[in-house]
Design a protein that fits this description.
The complex is a heterodimer of chains A (212) and B (316). With 212 residues, chain A is of the alpha+beta class. Chain A has seven helices and five strands, in the order αββαβββααααα. In chain A, helix 4 packs across helix 7. In chain B, the strands form three sheets. In chain B, strands 4-5-8-6-7 form a five-stranded antiparallel β-sheet. In chain B, helix 10 packs across helix 11. The chains are: A alpha+beta (212), B alpha+beta (316). Chains A and B meet through strand 4, helix 5 and helix 6 of A and strand 1, helix 2, helix 3, helix 5 and helix 6 of B.
Chain lengths: 212, 316
């Protein structure tokens, strides 16, 4: 039987190979155009932050989103690019304890901050409780939105514990509780094209129950 | 996205000084709207001034018994503040009705007020849009406009302001505090903050270039029952078709502000005297002079029925 690592490697190999062949074709005209009109130097800025506990230092084009810094510069491809406009939640990571859309923020704005991606929550050998629960409850189908769903879910439970209200919290002066309605509302920034929502709610409820 | 240079500043004075050095620069805080627009090259600033680390992130009591909300206070933190939840429930309700948890964790109080419209023709750079490209025309007039304004619009623009938070701020009589490039501070009542589109829909607020919002203040709490009812195409994470924010006192008097109907949160104080008599007479004054298209005419009865429902809810 295939181990998760082998599966990961083989799938990654196919994807990287595919992307490389496309890039080869696409790059030719771009390079030619660049040679004809030498562009002005692209502004870059140095940034240092901690990613999954490790200090990282990068000198980045100012335009690079946190998402692209993670994926393209640090090769942490667990975080996914879906819409790249803050509408789907696939890029959700946790920065200084809070979930954000990594596509809608510049990497250079996060100097000195602490970033946790899906790779930092757990590993195939030592999975985070939320990762375990998603497997247990079959909280995905294609899996593309899953890293974002899991990062978001971990932060959602922290937000409820911290007393952050939501649109469905009945009494604003009382502490919010973990209910299916609360979880559905709080997870609405993470879209799942496959429609695994009910199992995702079961997974999060399972983790919340185990911690209660 | 166009290239830009970037600097981080730590004080409002440094921010306005940086602006004076770099014409065309934009302040960036949460960035959730600005970066989205920069990706589409609707916004193309040559320089970004990162104001997100300025220590304007506190919510403090004012000597008048109200609250002073720092410009950089995140939407999540504002919605969660115990004083806001207790005394300004409408504000928390409006905040949590907007965006997603991820976005509210980044979005700031000042940035929320300065959000640009979600008109699809403003976003589509292949279409004419007087707000995006002054003088190019308006594709929404005569186009798909079920989301568009029914009051306050002009021949040049029928876009709506997308903020939920601003609707609550308007009902609560908030004041926007700013500092300009010369270091001069001023306080702008939110009623006077947004500019009508008229012939210049690209000018959306009364802020001068380089003027920085430092805080939003709320006067003393007014009590009453606070309700924010947002009607949208899906139950969560969608912009308003219309929204109704009310503060209703026990004797039936109160305040009402609307979202999704105009270029600014819409409130007509003169119409509020009719609140004890129900939704119909209020809406007659509130939406007087409304101009609709066949696609957005539904907003008028929708406002009236939503307000009627909200007033019934307030009675308990």
């Amino acid at each position: 039987m295939q181990t998760p690592e082998e599966y990961e490697l083989s799938r990654r190999g196919v994807l990287v190979g595919g992307a490389a062949s496309v890039a080869t074709v696409a790059l030719v005209p771009a390079v030619a155009a660049g040679a004809a009109t030498a562009p002005a130097a692209t502004p870059t800025t140095k940034v240092s932050f901690k990613v999954n506990g490790a200090d990282r230092e990068l000198d980045l084009d100012t335009r690079v989103s946190l998402l692209d810094a993670l994926r393209e510069h640090l090769h942490l491809t667990g975080t996914k690019k879906g819409c790249d406009h803050g509408q789907c939640g696939a890029c959700t990571v946790i920065v200084d304890g809070r979930r954000i859309n990594s596509c809608l923020t510049l990497a250079v704005m996060h100097d000195g901050e602490n970033i946790t991606t899906i790779e930092g929550l757990g590993t195939p050998d030592r999975m985070h409780a939320m990762q375990d629960a998603f497997v247990e409850h079959d909280g995905y189908q294609c899996g593309y939105c899953t890293p974002g769903q899991i990062c978001s879910a971990v932060a959602v439970l922290d937000e409820i514990r911290a007393g952050v209200p939501s649109h469905v919290t009945a009494d604003l002066t009382a502490a919010p509780t973990v209910t299916a309605a609360e979880l559905r509302e709080r997870m609405s920034g993470n879209i799942c094209r496959c429609g695994a929502y009910s199992n995702i709610i079961d997974a999060i409820t399972g983790v919340a129950g185990a911690k209660a | 996205m166009k290239s830009f240079t970037y600097e981080r500043v730590d004080t409002p004075a440094a921010a306005t000084a940086a602006f004076a050095r770099t014409p065309g620069a934009r302040f960036i805080a949460g960035g959730t709207n600005l970066l989205d627009l920069m990706k589409l090259e609707i916004e193309t600033p040559p320089h970004l001034i990162d104001v997100s680390h300025i220590a304007l992130d506190k919510i403090e009591a004012t000597p008048e018994g109200g609250l002073r909300i720092g410009a950089m206070v995140r939407n999540t933190d504002l919605a969660s503040d115990a004083r806001v939840r207790r005394d300004y429930g409408l504000l928390t309700r409006a905040l949590v009705a907007g965006a997603s948890g991820q976005l509210r964790n980044k979005a700031t109080t000042a940035g929320n007020l300065l959000q640009r419209t979600r008109c699809p023709y403003f976003y589509d750079t292949n279409q004419p849009c007087n707000k995006r490209k002054p003088g190019s025309g308006c594709a929404a007039i005569g186009g798909f406009n079920r989301l568009h304004a029914v009051v306050g619009a002009s021949e040049a623009c029928i876009a709506t302001h997308p903020s939920d938070m601003a609707v609550a701020m308007r009902a609560l009589d908030a004041t926007v505090e700013t500092v300009d490039a010369g270091g001069k501070a001023r306080a702008i009542p939110i009623a006077d903050f947004y500019r009508a589109p008229a012939k210049t829909p690209h000018l959306e607020t009364v802020l001068a270039p380089g003027e920085l919002i430092t805080a939003v203040t709320l006067p003393r709490p007014v009590g009453g029952t606070h309700i924010y009812h947002k009607v949208r195409d899906r139950a969560s994470y969608a912009f308003a078709l219309i929204s109704v924010g009310v503060i209703v006192q026990r004797d039936g008097t109160g305040r009402v502000a609307l979202g999704g109907v105009g270029y600014k949160p819409w409130r007509v104080e003169g119409a509020e005297a009719a609140l004890p008599r129900g939704a119909r007479p209020v809406v007659d004054g509130l939406l007087a002079g409304a101009k609709t298209t066949h696609e957005n005419a539904y907003k008028l009865p929708l406002v009236e029925r939503t307000l009627a429902g909200v007033l019934a809810q307030a009675k308990g």
